Amino acid sequence: MIFLINGTYELWVAIPILNKSLYTSWKYPYVLTLDTSIFIITILLVMRAVSIIRTSKSFHINLRIILIFQLCQWVQILLARYFLFPYLVGYRFLGDHRKLYHHFWTDSLEETVPIPCVIEEWPLFFGGFLYTHHFASCIFFLFSVSAERAIASFYLSDYEKNTRPYISFIIIFVSMIFSSIYSLIFAFNFFTFLVTSFLIALVTIASISLYVFVYYYNTRVKKVTCNKNGKYTLTRRFQTMENLKSLKMAKYVVTTHAIYVALCEICLLCVYFGVESRYWEIFIYIMDSVVF
Predict the structure, then answer these.
(1) Is residue 101 part of a domain?
(2) What 3-state class would DSSP assign to 18?
(3) Which H helix or E strand runs over 105?
(4) Domain total for the chain?
(5) With CB atoms 3.0 to 4.6 Å apart as the test, which of 63, 204, 262, 292 could cross-link to 59 if both were Cys?
(6) Residue 64 to residues 3, 49, 61, 163: CA-CA distances in angstroms?
(7) Is residue 102 assigned to a domain?
(8) Side by side, which strands form the sheet with 9-12?
């Protein structure tokens, strides 16, 4: 939703509805039950996944650190929900209190929400930034996994023996920087919705392309090492096999994350283009459930 700050500049917050007293509606118990169920299921899945990855020897320690860090970032969504909750359920009204705002992204000045100052509504903008940052980090997570496997391919001779834990921290740091930049681009509404959606798709495609390239590169190296045993050391052949094993395991992680990002993108497009249809509220609840 676009907010017009003191009539001078615009800020975007990932909140799909405003000024709707949801807590007085007959739908509220069902929405609350759905949210609670999703929360419990998700936290159990996250805890289980972290436990499996932490104890698994199938992944290199750098890849394990990246995977666990990304799973733990789900806490961002919880914090974002905490700060956005009063606005989502209608405890707090903004702009024209008689008007229901449900334009997730708009170019119309009439559909923007006028507020006098950012500081007065800091929970809204802070929660919105956390929400957007988590989604951006999901996009760059695909690239992080592919980059880590690309580095493993570069250090074929001793990557297993010399773990280089700083690599995972550098990848995470760079990923957080780019996620923050993306979040600020979203927040300050630098581009139109369609351009922003294109950038999301572009990063996702680039990440998957890098993963595919690394996978086929290691497959090719494996074939060469098997055909010319004398030319390559045992360590290099072993590392290639380990890379392929990790890549095959990571394939499910990359695929799942790519599907998640694609679903979020589809939901965003449905909310954007369906804003004037009679199904706009259904699109909003579906998007909220998918992202959460």
Answers:
(1) no
(2) strand
(3) none
(4) 1
(5) 63
(6) 40, 11, 5, 12
(7) no
(8) 9-12, 2-5, 113-115
Domain containing residue 86: CATH number:
1.20.1070
On whether residue 276 sits in a domain, the answer given is yes
Report yes or no on whether pTM surpasses 0.85. no
**Counts for the chain of helices (H) and strands (E), in that order:** 8, 3
Structural domain containing residue 15: 2-96+109-291
pLDDT tens digits for range 138-178: 888 888 888 888 888 788 777 777 778 889 899 999 989 98
> Is the pLDDT confidence value at 225 over 80?
no
Q: What tens digit of pLDDT does each residue of 173-193 get?
A: 998 998 888 888 888 877 777
Rounded Cα gap, residues 211 and 143, in angstroms: 8
C-alpha–C-alpha distance, residues 16 and 280, integer Å: 10
Q: Which has more pLDDT, 100 or 48?
A: 48
The answer to whether the CB of 158 falls within 8 A of the CB of 100 is no
